[in-house]
């Protein structure tokens, strides 16, 4: 990584932490203890799951999720990693899938809505890695997004379940190859 890239990473990270500190200072100054506690809990949760994701041994995928909000998108994400997650991921496959999915959601997301994607990284009963996606917001053409997921999933042997409507997408992706 070049010096400029390292500085850019540090700049974004510092910006994120300054935002959190500003929220904490504001809530403290206003005496809003409950709001202060919520910010602390959310920040702790996020940092904990970023650490877990960093330990998954899929650096490109981890970087994609952790830095997602550093670029402009028409939806936000939150993610969590199951405590007992120990499956091996195909880093490139999962990164490519997520980048493609993000591009399709950006195309399909209604820009006047608050669109959000919850991502859960876990294992199924057979120990295979799973990506559980839960989108809330508004999609312009949910059928097109479903077709892309179906097509992409068949090509990479990953889909287990999908449900799509104008305001909701729920999908479970299982890496049948188990990272092989």
TrEMBL record:
Protein name, per record: Stage 0 sporulation protein B (Sporulation initiation phosphotransferase)
SUPFAM superfamilies: Sporulation response regulatory protein Spo0B
Domain Sporulation initiation phosphotransferase B C-terminal per the UniProt entry, residue ranges: 58-170
Recorded GO MF terms: phosphorelay sensor kinase activity
Pfam families: SPOB_a, SPOB_ab
Key words, A-Z: Kinase, Phosphoprotein, Transferase
Keyword Kinase on entry: yes
Top-rank taxon: Bacteria
InterPro entries listed in its UniProt record: Sig_transdc_His_kin_SpoOB, Spo0B_C_sf, SPOB_a, SpoOB_C
């Amino acid at each position: 990584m070049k010096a400029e890239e390292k500085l850019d990473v540090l700049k974004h990270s510092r910006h994120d932490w300054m935002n959190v500190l500003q929220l904490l200072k504001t809530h403290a100054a206003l005496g809003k203890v409950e709001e202060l506690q919520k910010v602390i809990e959310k920040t702790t949760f996020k940092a904990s799951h970023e650490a877990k994701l960093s330990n998954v041994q899929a650096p490109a995928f981890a970087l994609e999720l952790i830095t997602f909000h550093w670029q402009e998108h028409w939806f936000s994400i939150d993610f969590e990693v199951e405590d007992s997650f120990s499956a091996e991921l195909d880093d490139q496959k999962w990164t490519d899938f997520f980048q493609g999915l993000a591009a399709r959601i950006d195309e399909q997301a209604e820009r006047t809505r608050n669109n959000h994607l919850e991502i859960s990284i876990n294992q199924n009963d057979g120990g295979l890695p799973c990506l559980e996606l839960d989108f809330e917001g508004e999609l312009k053409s949910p059928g097109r997004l479903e077709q892309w997921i179906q097509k992409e999933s068949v090509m990479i042997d990953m889909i287990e379940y999908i449900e799509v409507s104008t305001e909701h997408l729920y999908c479970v992706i299982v890496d049948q190859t188990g990272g092989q």
